[in-house]
Amino acid sequence: MISDFRKSINHNWFFKPIEEETYKKIQIPHTNQEVPYNYFDEKMYQFISCYKRIIHPKDPSKRIFLQFDGVMTAFKLYVNGQFVEEYRGGYIPHFIEITTYLQYDQENEIYVEVDSTEREDIPPFGHVVDYLTFGGIYRDVFLYELKHCFIQNVQYHYQVKNFSKEKGTIVLKPKVQINNIGQEKEYSIKVNIDHQEFTQKQQIKEGTHWYDLHEILLGEVDLWGLDHPILYPVQTQLLCQQEILDQSTIKVGFRHAKVDPTGLYINGEKIKIRGLNRHQSYPYVGYAMPKRAQIRDADILKEELGLNLARTSHYPQSPYFLQRCDEIGLLVMEEIPGWQHVSSKKEWRQQALQDVEKMILRDFNHPSIITWGVRINESQDDEELYKATNAVARKIDPSRPTCGVRCIEKSQFLEDIYSMNDFIHDGGEVILRSQSKVTGLKKPVPYIVTEFCGHIFPTKKFDNEQRLVEHALRHGRVQSIAREQDDYMGAIGWCAFDYYTHYDFGSGDRICYHGVMDMFRIPKYAAHLYKSQKSPYKEPVLEPLTWWSRGERNKGQVFPIYVCTNCDAIDVILGGKKVGHFTREENIIEENLKGLEYPPIKLSLSNGDWGSKWTEAEFIGYIGNEKVIVKKFVANPVVTDLIVQVDDSILNGFELDVTRIVVKVVDQYDNVLPYSNGFLTLETQGDIDIIGPKQVTFIGGSIAFWIKTLGKGIAGKGQVNIKSSFGIEKQVVIQIQE
Length: 738
What we know:
Layout: E1 6-8, E2 13-17, E3 24-26, E4 48-55, E5 63-68, E6 71-72, E7 74-79, E8 82-88, E9 94-97, E10 108-115, E11 136-137, E12 141-146, E13 149-161, E14 167-180, E15 185-193, E16 196-204, E17 207-212, E18 216-222, E19 232-240, E20 243-252, E21 257-260, E22 263-266, E23 269-271, E24 273-277, H1 291-304, E25 309-312, H2 319-328, E26 331-335, H3 346-363, E27 369-373, H4 383-396, E28 402-406, E29 417-421, H5 435-439, E30 447-451, H6 465-484, E31 490-493, E32 499-500, E33 511-512, H7 525-531, E34 542-544, E35 561-565, E36 569-574, E37 577-583, E38 601-603, E39 617-623, E40 626-633, E41 641-646, E42 650-652, E43 658-666, E44 679-685, E45 688-690, E46 695-697, E47 702-709, E48 716-724, E49 729-737
Parallel strand pairs: 24-25, 24-31, 25-26, 26-27, 27-28, 28-29, 29-30, 42-49
Antiparallel strand pairs: 1-12, 2-3, 2-4, 4-10, 5-9, 5-12, 6-11, 7-8, 7-10, 13-14, 14-17, 14-18, 15-16, 15-19, 19-20, 21-22, 22-23, 32-33, 34-35, 35-38, 36-37, 36-39, 39-40, 41-43, 43-47, 44-46, 44-48, 45-47, 48-49
Helix pairs in contact: 1-2, 3-4, 6-7
């Protein structure tokens, strides 16, 4: 539902587990049960809970609707004690009319009974699942007050003609879905875009129907692309005579996208995909993170990791995350909920089809989305189901290709892009299987690797240096081959962030340590590998993969050191003496990393044998002849300071808003001390609170936590007092706006 005539009703809810007597006041997004960071029983959130709220509709001429953007896993809705319906599916929106259940100018109770158990009639459940789904009303709730006839959806179909990399001529072909309980009559539909206005008369029938509008020639516009994600506000209005009955305003981007066996082309430019998979879970609260956190994740993927694509593994994700991908030029592969298991139950299979339909209807207008994933991740072939999912997708959206992620060779190919999770690389010589070996087809097809590494080489942020380095190199090798060879559209690594999982998987503590960042979004060495693939003109990167300590690796060896950098050359200074100037010559770049745009530089030097004096090290990066970045390592590191980094220091006080605070234990040169085992005690002042425990330990020399506003609408300042076991204290001031 995309009408402008909506308001958030995330505040003033009351919640309780169904077996308890007392409600407590909460805000949406909400998790039904906060969990410890690790080693908890996942059944602790798998229960039925109750949410209720009062609304006061005043205008009896209006139709009243509720929209629940995400409720895990199913819910029954009651209005004033009357049962409305049960709604299934935890990752898709539910738009519900409640008009006939209401009493105007009076208090009306909305009661939601949420079932967060793992029901076998709803994907992804029915067998084991390698992720946790948590519970509660974890996305926004909206109230709509609409006229008898309103806009339920708009799809902005278009053609791009006579295009270059940045400009093209657009022929817009809008489709508008109108919901009308009045008699059939003539209305006007007006489209405003790029300072142009177009109006047509349309006979609107009773009921809910789609209407194809006349073609609109916009002329030449700036196209949406990865480096120039141009968006245009577009407003569609429904009018009866001169009265505006409804309107929808969103931002759209126009791009020419083509996929063929040679690859992906955006506006005629070939794009090699370099991506990671994203789970939407966070420490303590699972899925229940609001807008700002969702936006921040997109920024991390694009800016801190230098990616050009995110896969929404394994379900449709937050609209705020997708909107941000549109804004910053991050491509998206979006897919339906599921993990390996395909049920024979009729209700389960019907839900899978509904997931496809609602995913595309919700997200059609996002230029960042380049393909729909219409197959349950890593499932076996199921011709009946996957013919149906492809048919649903192609009917709603003939403009985008479908894909379907599998992990078996010679799988039935019903989609437009053959998508494969290829975990063949175990550190040996084989990096990726060839397309022909995987598909078994006699001709090339569009082919992308959608997962690699992951469970083959789980790596914790606090693992030893050699394992962290190898983790980075494995990601680098796969990305190198995928970029270099025409067999592949690219590769999407598993995965961006560590995530929660069932006890059947991971390290037994309910965490899969598969991310290039930990669950707090703090980088491991592999994150440096990805970031170093950014253009140096956007940000120079220089990250030697070392803790610079003689006894960390086997045999007391420090070298070779891989330096993840996008600089043209580096100087190395050991003990105050320059020992070399290094460029990407053949002899210092490993063969299986040469396909990267900026392969790591491998340094095979010496800083003395075991028993000799240890010295400082300095690495200097150059672009051309200009020194652009320096990284220093001290010989005798000691705890010197805490570095505190805040994502956002201004928060909204009228809603649940959050920001992340990262704290690092550092030495004399501000390098993280990875084996520091201190702890923090956290206190807050003002209209803010800590998410999770107020005493936290460092993990691998750093830790992060989120603070939240309490939604009281109190403008002013909040403060976080950070006290450490090292005797170092810090304060963070947060400005809270009305």
